[in-house]
Design a protein that fits this description.
The complex is a heterodimer of chains A (about 120) and B (about 120). By secondary structure, chain A is mainly β. In chain A, strands 2, 4, 5, 6, 9, 10 and 11 form a seven-stranded mixed beta sheet that branches. Chain A has a four-stranded antiparallel beta sheet with strand order 1-3-8-7, with no helix packed on it. Chain B has about 120 residues and is mainly beta. Chain B is built from no helices and twelve strands. In chain B, the strands form three sheets. In chain B, strands 2, 5, 6, 10, 11 and 12 form a six-stranded mixed beta sheet that branches. In chain B, strand 8 and strand 9 form a beta hairpin. Classes of the chains: A mainly beta (about 120), B mainly beta (about 120). The interface between A and B is medium-sized, with 30 and 24 residues.
């Protein structure tokens, strides 16, 4: 059973550029959350997608946007990159039903470096 | 707003000794509580959760955690530490009430566990 897959695993961008990160949730999961994890820090909640809509958002500027597709996969877009956007971006999926309800399943992350 | 505090940046324990990683939380209603573990350059892996019921929760790899409502704590424990337990541990909380799509999970800053051979 494939878990959460994220791509790309690593990428390097320069300030001002735009980036798109992709996530395929675990089979059977319909909710996707995105987190930013800076070096040495805990994951910070960016937003959560359910039924193809952004439902809840953390304290991140509008430069951070996303999308969820009918197959539940998701994208995270970051515009006008800043040096401070360098981090590990984690996608997590979840389901509201079954024994694993309420548990987040994480991907391995996309490591973004902004130069 | 919900929050999690992990007061120790690092915990060192000798192999074979019991370990405890501390966590306290704040949430407006009843909490759902979680522990996750992260290995270098990897995503987080679920260890255990408290949703309701017995205050002592058992999880993966011999870990357990005790929910204490009066102290708003959810400390992670293991009777006998292994060198392979060395990793970064995160406590997390969610409000039990949130409907689908509004189930933000808030993480602590993490505690690095070092098990010394």
């Amino acid at each position: 059973d494939a878990g959460v897959t994220q791509s790309p695993t690593h990428l390097i961008k320069t300030r001002g550029q735009q980036v798109t990160l992709r996530c395929s949730p675990k089979s059977g999961h319909d909710t996707v959350s995105w987190y930013q994890q800076a070096l040495g820090q805990g994951p910070q909640f960016i937003f959560q997608y359910y039924e193809e809509e952004e439902r809840q958002r953390g304290n991140f500027p509008d430069r951070f946007s996303g999308h969820q597709f009918p197959n539940y996969s998701s994208e995270l877009n970051v515009n006008a990159l800043l040096l401070g956007d360098s981090a590990l971006y984690l996608c997590a999926s979840s389901s509201g039903t079954g024994s694993g309800a309420n548990v987040l399943t994480f991907g391995a992350g996309s490591r973004l470096t902004v130069l | 707003a919900q929050s999690v505090a992990q007061p120790e940046d690092q915990v060192n324990v000798a192999e074979g000794n019991p370990l405890t990683v501390k966590c306290t939380y704040s949430v407006s209603g009843n909490p759902y509580l979680f522990w996750y573990v992260q290995y270098p350059n990897r995503g987080l892996q679920f260890l255990l959760k408290y949703i309701t019921g017995d205050n002592l929760v058992k999880g993966s790899y011999g870990f357990e955690a005790e929910f204490n409502k009066s102290q708003t704590s959810f400390h992670l424990k293991k009777p006998s530490a292994l060198v392979s337990d060395s990793a970064l541990y995160f406590c997390a909380v969610r409000d039990a009430v949130g409907r689908r799509g509004y189930q933000k999970v808030t993480f602590g800053t993490g505690t690095k566990l070092q098990v010394i051979p």
